[in-house]
Design a protein that fits this description.
2% helix, mainly beta, 6-stranded antiparallel β-sheet, 1 helix, Jelly Rolls, 5-stranded antiparallel β-sheet
């Protein structure tokens, strides 16, 4: 009898695929995707394993809704949990400090921040920018001390403008000789020099007023002799955008030195203020502070003087000077993020831009190159990953990466959630944990407004972009962050209480709490955060449960000395239905069943399998241990698990890998034979 070959799947690097792709067997991703992926970690080398569990760290306020990573100049790492009017500071074992902030709970979703050394700035358009400083004496909070904020004409009546003034001198000139003046790129007609100051003054004034870039109101006066002062007064001449120079025409020995006497200041009021609003975002870049997205000038950004983060004095004309830059865009466009990358990146509510010149220079034009027109969602962080910036579209339902390509000589935007669009809706927060082991991919944590968390496993060089789900029973995820120790943490709500929990490698439970006794005990106490919930105990290497927590404690049937107690969130990986192709564009459509399954596992202690839509059945892995003397968690099985004689015809037969009790799980491959 000839053996019938089965279909083996060894890689899941396409993640959970959209239901619309289930019949697309010609796609290369069909053979590396799954129908459902939950609570597992996808490995770039192939297969998957149980995801990290969540360690309970501390209870939080009912309004805690954002997490910010913070690292001091001395290397101390904190997680800062923002709540209504306050912030809680967390270290390894819980909250160690708190401080007041001027932001309400309703403002937290659109809050952005910039961090450098011991200082952090918090931005919101309706609140003056806050400065938070970590000191030896504690946390200090004040308003960011903006200096010399540039003026803007908002249409009111102003009397604080100062016209620019220039002086020109004539050296070695004879009567009747001709010269020209250059005023901001426009050249005058030939002017005849006269040793009489009033005569040459009148000729210069007439020539300058004849230029197309000069408006009425300019004043030309005599300082002394033939030293002339040009005052750029008048409504159309406001500001400091003037440059004056002179060139002799027929006097080779003559010279016309010109220099600025006074910097012009346009009339107006500070571009940001309590009346006009504050920046939405900011960053440190090239020794400058850049702030943008002002409430009353939403498509503008400004930069400080180089090396002086708080000074925005625009009177300095050198390359390192401060200046304000408006986007050349249609109305209604708001700057939501400014990001430091290969070039400065600007993400708005409508488009994505990059600054063509890598150096920010006041003396050179700032060119915004439009790269894509998706728009970004306000408040959702931009995440840097392998040279790209990952952002959420303004719809809240698509993730894209923004990357420079040498082929195009441009930044391009490519969606990375295109294979799993059904997983994303109303995204509110994102964070990235870098790979720490050779078997890891970068982990992108995504939280939405419905309390769901999605996990993306990204490794560009190996073409790994897979998305799945992270769940924790009835827990609702509120925020996610990765601190400077590369630890991913979340704010999660259980039983109406919000808590700070941290993903921990090798942990098999959620909301987990460790216990240790001097001698074995039957009762475990101190479980207030698990009150009323069903928990499992991993004690002395064995698994016990479930138990319902009552009065913050549980009672076991077997005494244990040390271990963990927490919630069980089982993994679920369901394969795609087997292909029905029997020829080009020819398929066999009828009920089918998978009758045999081989599962290759590594160091696995708990495995349950569901086939053809039937309930999951626990697989007795310890049948392979003849003594059954070792603790359950010390007796992991590595090898091939064979299941035969599986019944149940159905329209779309699949194999589901899950667990009915906590334990380790690592799957290398799944092979299925089906009768079609």
């Amino acid at each position: 009898m000839v053996a019938r070959p089965g279909r083996i799947q060894t890689t899941y690097t396409a993640g959970e695929l959209d239901p619309l792709t289930f019949d697309r067997t010609e796609l290369k991703y069909f053979h590396s995707g799954a129908k459902h992926v939950e609570n597992v970690q996808i490995h770039p080398q192939g297969g998957f394993s149980l995801c990290d569990g969540l360690r309970h760290v501390d209870d939080l306020s009912a309004t805690s809704d954002r997490l910010i990573p913070f690292k001091t100049s001395q290397g101390t790492v904190y997680d800062i949990a923002l709540r209504d009017g306050h912030a809680d500071v967390l270290e390894h074992n819980g909250i160690t400090d708190d401080f007041a902030l001027p932001f309400t709970y309703e403002q937290l979703p659109e809050l952005t921040w910039a961090h450098r050394q011991d200082t952090m700035f918090l931005f919101h358009e309706d609140v003056e920018t806050s400065r938070v400083i970590a000191t030896d004496a504690g946390w200090q909070v004040d308003d960011l001390p903006y200096e010399d904020i540039p003026n803007y004409d908002y249409g009111a009546v102003y009397a604080n403008g100062e016209p620019a003034e220039w002086e020109i001198n004539f050296v070695g000139f004879d009567d009747g000789k001709r010269f020209r003046l250059m005023v901001s790129g426009q050249e005058t007609v030939s002017i005849y020099y006269s040793a009489t100051g009033e005569t040459v003054r009148a000729a210069i004034e007439a020539a300058i007023l004849d230029l197309p870039n000069v408006g009425a109101g300019i004043v030309v006066s005599v300082i002394s002799g033939t030293n002339i002062k040009i005052t750029f007064a008048g409504t159309d001449n406001q500001g400091d955008g003037w440059a004056v120079s002179g060139t002799p025409i027929d006097d080779a020995d003559g010279a016309i030195p010109a220099f600025k006497l006074k910097v012009g200041v346009p009339p107006g009021e500070p571009i940001i203020s309590n009346l006009r609003g504050w920046p939405r975002c900011g960053m440190f870049f090239q020794q400058r502070l850049i702030a943008g997205g002002f409430r009353s000038r939403a498509n503008n950004w400004m930069t400080s003087i180089t090396g002086r983060y708080f000074s925005f004095n625009t009177k300095l004309d050198e390359a390192n000077g401060a200046f304000v830059v408006p986007l050349d865009s249609e109305g209604g466009e708001t700057i939501n993020h400014v990001i430091a990358g290969r070039n400065m990146l600007v993400f708005t509510s409508e488009r994505e831009y990059w600054i063509s010149e890598r150096e920010i220079d006041k003396t050179q034009p700032t060119v915004h190159v439009e790269a894509s027109t998706h728009g970004t969602k306000a408040g959702v962080p931009i995440i840097k990953n392998e040279g790209a910036a990952i952002f959420c579209h303004k719809t809240g339902s698509v993730l894209s990466e923004f990357r420079y390509t040498d082929v195009d000589g441009n930044f391009v935007s490519q969606p990375i959630s295109v294979l799993s669009p059904h997983l994303f809706e109303d995204v509110k927060d994102m964070a990235l944990r870098k790979a720490s082991l050779s078997t890891d991919a970068n982990l992108l944590g995504v939280v939405d407004e419905h309390g769901r968390m999605r996990a993306g496993f990204l490794l560009r060089e190996q073409d790994v972009t897979s998305f799945g789900r992270f769940s924790s029973g009835v827990g609702l995820f509120k925020a996610v962050s990765v601190n400077k120790r590369n630890e991913m943490s979340v704010i999660i709500e259980r039983n109406g209480t919000r808590r700070f929990e941290r993903f921990e490698r090798g942990l098999l439970l959620d909301a987990a709490k460790a216990f240790s006794f001097a001698s074995p005990e039957l009762e475990i106490t101190g479980l207030e955060h698990l009150e009323g919930l069903d928990v499992w105990v991993l004690g002395d290497g064995d698994v016990y449960g479930p138990f319902t927590v009552s009065a913050a404690s549980i009672n076991l049937d077997v005494a244990v000395q040390s271990g963990e107690v927490g919630l069980f969130a089982p993994p679920v990986v369901e394969t795609l239905p087997p292909p029905r192709d029997i020829g080009p564009h020819t398929v066999l459509r009828r009920k089918a069943r998978i009758h045999s399954v081989w599962i290759s596992v590594v160091d696995t202690t708990s495995l349950a399998v569901s086939v053809n839509g039937k309930p999951a059945v626990d697989v007795a892995l310890r049948d392979y241990d003849p003594d059954l003397e070792n603790p359950e968690l010390d007796d992991g099985f590595t090898g091939l698990v064979e299941l035969r004689g599986l019944t149940g015809f159905c329209d779309e037969p699949t194999v589901t890998i899950t667990q009915l009790r906590p334990g380790r799980l690592s799957v290398r491959s799944i092979t299925a034979e089906a009768k079609l």
